[in-house]
Amino acid sequence: MEVFHALQANATGILPAEFSNLGDLVAIDGSLIDAVLSMYWADYRTGSKKAKTHIGFDLNRGIPRKIFLTDGKGDERSFVSRILSPGQTGVMDRYYQCHKNFDLWQEEKKHFVCRIRENTIKTVISDNPIKPGSIVFYDAVVLLGTKGVNQTESSLRVVGYRVDNKDYRVATDRHDLSAEDVAMVYKLRWNIETFFGWWKRHLKVYHLIARSEHGLMVQILAGLITYLLLAVYCHEQHNEKVSIKRVRELRIKIRNEVGQPDNMPPDSEFYNKPTEGGLYANL
Q1: CB 109 within 8 A of CB 84
Q2: Complete DSSP assignment for 167-187
Q3: Strand-strand pairing, 111-115 and 89-92
Q4: Predicted local confidence at residue 120, as pLDDT
Q5: Are 77 and 100 in contact (CB under 8 A)?
């Protein structure tokens, strides 16, 4: 964990902030990991074991920022305050909608852009003007929820917009952004989904090696550290983001450096020796 945090801080200083005009954006989401029944700590449901990662993802630089591990039933919403620092903006999907948390995050000076359910009750305090021809159809300062039941104590902003005939409504405390910028911030949340897909497919970090909670966390951190190293390498050497093309080129380079014959398959015993090629086999 210490290596991960040190490398993450180093990568933050190297990689450019692509959306700095929108603030310090951190996408927050959880991802389930299939476990085996012997992993007694990974409680999920009867006859099924799963663990869950809770990740904060730096949207400006495209790298993981923080990581927590729980059993599969672990509540994702409780990790938002642990992942965000004051001044940062958490970007979350509908699962994270919680009116008490919206109040809490504002008290903690932690910003948010969170999609909300379409039928959420809104008490309008004031309406904001909408630009003609905009994708935005709603922009207002409101209280969310039912009074006396689950209504927010602090006002917030709700922006509604339409993309490809699909309506989105997001709650935020970012009054400094235009409604279109708020929509853009939520759109960027998809980048963490792309990261999860790339991470699972190409780094194979969810192929269980360890069974204990500690061992699984070490395995996951190894994957995150690999991704951070790749992000720095691709930027410094090619001025690009991480891509499978560059990973394949790097794999060939490493294979040549350790002296593996060109005609030897990647899964050969030589390539996977721990003291020679094994460390890089996941690449």
Answers
A1: no
A2: EEEEEE---SS-HHHHHHHHH
A3: parallel
A4: 96
A5: no
CA 104, 29, 225, 229 torsion-angle sign: negative
CA dist 18 → 12, 80, 205, 226 (Å): 12, 23, 27, 22
State whether residue 63 is helix, strand or coil.
strand
Q: Is 91 exposed, middle or buried (0-12, 13-18, 19+ CB in 10 A)?
A: buried
Residue 148 identity: G
Tokens for 59, please give them.
Answer: 């949207």
Q: State the DSSP H helix or E strand holding residue 4, giving kind and residue range, or none if neither.
A: helix 2-14
Residue 276 in contact with residue 261, Cβ under 8 Å? Answer: no
pLDDT > 70? residue 215: yes
Residue 39 structure tokens = 């992993």
- The rounded distance, in Å, linking the Cα atoms of 92 and 6 is 26
Name the pairing type of β-strands 89-92 and 25-34: parallel
Residue 201 pLDDT level (bands cut at 50, 70, 90): confident
Q: Which residues contact 12 (CB under 8 A, 6 or more apart)?
A: 58, 61, 63
| Token digits of residue 143 | 């209280």
Strands (E) across 59-197 are located at 63-71, 89-92, 111-115, 122-127, 136-144, 156-163, 166-172
**Cβ(42)–Cβ(35) under 8 Å?**
yes
